Amino acid sequence: PDAAEAVVREAAERWGGVDVLVNNAGATAVMPLEHLDADRVRALFELNVTAPSLLAAAALPHLRRSRGAIVNVSSTYGHRPLPGGAHYAASKAALEQLTRSWALELAASGVRVNALAPGPTESRALARAGLTEQQVEMIKQDEARRVPLGRRGAPEEVAEWIVRLADPRSTWLTGQVLALDGGLGLT
């Protein structure tokens, strides 16, 4: 819990303030209900919900001064079911609800809050979820087949939209969850 204050303090000292907070850290977990592990659920929510909340609270005085922005990185599974990964999906749904609630709460201060919900994107998240290399490859192929544009996203594509949501010229955009998923949400 003390890490959030330390991170914000270091950023403010290094750059003279905080204009944007991007809550991008996160983890996934493959955990069917029959294999529920309370410690894994708790850790998932601590990283995907509690940590962004603590960082946002710590950054809030700076964001109010700069009339800055918070960009939360959710997932297409924040608003789509994920059998075998329900707790991951629930943690991202919670982050999307925080986005909407904070947007209303902070609007009078001029602080904008939006979220980006990427679909399947190339990263090491699946490997870090404890899956074998073969399982990861099968999931990636299946996801690419289900995405209407026929491929997984690239980290650079996600980063570009984070920058757009954080852009101070986006003064009329708050409380939104932008799906960046190659059309997966249409299926």
Can you describe what's shown?
This protein is of the alpha/beta class. Helices cover 50% and strands 11% of the residues. The protein contains six helices and four strands. The chain has helices spanning 2-15, 38-66, 86-106, 125-128, 133-146, 155-166, and strands at residues 20-23, 69-73, 112-118, 177-180. It has a four-stranded parallel β-sheet, with helices on both faces. Helix 1 (2-15) packs parallel to helix 2 (38-66) and helix 2 packs parallel to helix 3. The longest helix has 29 residues, at 38-66. It is globular, with a radius of gyration of 17 Å. The protein starts with a helix and ends in a 7-residue tail after the last strand. The mean pLDDT is 94.
Please summarize what this structure is.
50% of the residues lie in helices and 11% in strands. It is α/β, with parallel strands linked by helices. The mean pLDDT is 94.
Strand-helix topology:
Layout: H1 2-15, E1 20-23, H2 38-66, E2 69-73, H3 86-106, E3 112-118, H4 125-128, H5 133-146, H6 155-166, E4 177-180
Parallel strand pairs: 1-2, 2-3, 3-4
Helix pairs in contact: 1-2, 2-3
Spatial arrangement of strands, main beta sheet: 1-2-3-4
Net shape:
globular
Give the DSSP E fraction (strand runs of 2 or more residues).
5-15%
Strand segment count: 4
The main pleated sheet reads as: 4 strands, parallel
Tell me the series of helices and strands, N- to C-terminal: HEHEHEHHHE
Helix fraction by DSSP (H/I, runs of at least 4): 40-55%
**pLDDT average, as an integer?**
94
Radius of gyration: 17 Å
Derived structural class: alpha/beta
Q: Span from first to last CA? A: 39 Å
- Count of DSSP-assigned helices: 6
Give the low-pLDDT segments: none
